[in-house]
Design brief:
Shape: globular
Structural class: alpha+beta
Number of helices: 12
CATH architecture of one domain: Up-down Bundle
Distance between the termini: 59 Å
CATH class of one domain: Mainly Alpha
Largest sheet: 6 strands, mixed
Helix content: 10-25%
Radius of gyration: 27 Å
Length: about 675
Amino acid sequence: MNRKPMPYETPDPSGRSWLTELPDEILHGIFLRLDLCDLTRCFRLCKELHDFLTDSAAINLRHTLLANSLHLNPFSIVANPNVPRQMPLTSARILAHLRETLTRFRNVAPKSTTNVRFREPSGSLYEYLEGVLLRTTRVPGGPASAKSRSLHVYDLRMIDEWEDTGDVMDDDDDDEVFETNSDSPMEGDFKTQHTFDFKIREIATDPTQDLLVVVSITPIREPGQGHFQAMMEFHLFSLSTFQPHPKAERHIIEFPQRLTLDEIMLDFQICDNALYIMSKGTGMFGGPNSPNDVLYGWDWMTGRLHVSLEAPEQVSFESFVLLTPSSFCIPATVARLPDATLAPDELTPDALRQLFWTHHLYLYAFPPLEDHPENGPWTAQHVSTIDMPPIKNKFLQGVPPMAMTIRTDPPPRTFNSPYPLHAPPPYLPDPESGVAIITFTLQRGFFPMFNPELPDNPMFTLIVLKSTLAKLLPEPTSPLLKQTFSRPVPVVPFKRLAPECRLLGPDRVPTSWVCYVYQNRYVAPYVRVVGTLDMSDNDDDDEDVEQQIIELSLQVFDFDPRRVRKERLDRARRLPPGMEAQDERLEGDVDGIDLVLAPTRLEPVPCLTEEVIVTGQNLPYIMVERETDSTNPLIDGQRILMLKSRGQRTIDPEDSDDDDDDDDLVEVMEF
């Protein structure tokens, strides 16, 4: 049966365009509801429509946001009644700021650089996310591992406010460096300190909700108790006031299990009103009664436990991230024997000689937070296993297994942020966007033997889009999320994942901070040997003593598919007429921007890999490299930070009497 077209589907015989005759307010409402593909096509329909769309700051802003996997934060364009003299941002101002930020990030050309000194001795804990840096302190002269009660909060989002005053006066001041000292009144504007009445064991923060999580441990003393027991508590504070968070019904959340060791290893993820915490046990070498790795999730606003997960036997959970608001991605190491069976609890000497480990990504899913469980928390369901690159290990041959970590920032939030109240962020990343960074680092710890054929400190980095992993998850309404099926968990071999990811190494440089990824951008230090220096005392020496001359640089990667595609098309348009736009002619360094389209080939590494590993056929990227003197870069959506200690900085002998040289500092590059 033929469908009768609707009246609006039939063009006017006279050629009159009724759409363009609608009031501008209605037209804006129509185009602001289109997705990226449809809105892009509308720019090409006709000149009249193109001119209308081009002249509209609101529509151009939406198009630019969609093209970069961002969305507008409505709190930034609404007047704040608590700040009556502050004007809300306009679409034109947000668009100008966004375009400048994207251009500066593309070229790694910050608009300003600020050096912030750390006066207090560094403690053992730190955290950084979206402009807020947390550091515990220690007693001067005390060990760095000592537990502290004091916490320093550096809100680096405040720095941008007083820097912008200089930009109005002089637009050419891009290379100006602002130095803040403890004597400067500006430091008090962005640095706060608080001392708690308990020792801080771990910290986490979510600046978008003004949330600070502080962990404490309280020993439990019972009559006749012969071993250590303690209770772990999570205190929910306001980041700006250090008072109990006003949105939390319970300001202290208690960990469900009792601790049997004083030392803890925790990983955190805070996403909207959910708080997820992984507690790592001592593993298979910790004894028969050692706790397994466990993961719990709460609704931190109500204190209700929502989901729980315990590592299977012979499986070690290395870390975790939220892939979506209702799924985990967990790097896992599995102890095995050559016959592909899991290692038994008690290893015989013969089994110990044959013991090896395999590396995987485990994907778990669970019902959304709004779906309240009736009888206790939901148990996260194992829905997929992804094999990782075939990196070899032999326990008794001096080749220990690689330690895995995974990082992806920010979490897949769906809430918009009103914080900081005086200046909410104008735009926020889409929850589906971003890359996951998985690192493989050679373990030391209880492995005293090392094969002399091993490279020095080998490290691999695997980069994969979150959307690639999310394709392996079930639908949010799937019954699999609420009950365990008898079917085996599907296993994805690495050969299937290889074209969709990039494996770099084994010469990657490890960092002591893990805040190196934000959405689709990834920052990493890189060491390059540029020559050798003869260190012999005289020419008569039989032995040549040479020292390598190294060059340290900062590499800024961008894996955003649309930005990479745009770079490729821009280069293709600059080719001479008639020349085919082949990848070999387009990739490479142009004006300091390196476009990589070819796959990455890793040759066999002694003791670690036996075959060539080819990855990245479907994951091109852009990379910009700049000189640096720091091995600890951090990144968020507006800035790159370079953490520097006295040992990393080049000290001018003429200024060696300056007490400031004894301080660590962070170089804040605003984009």
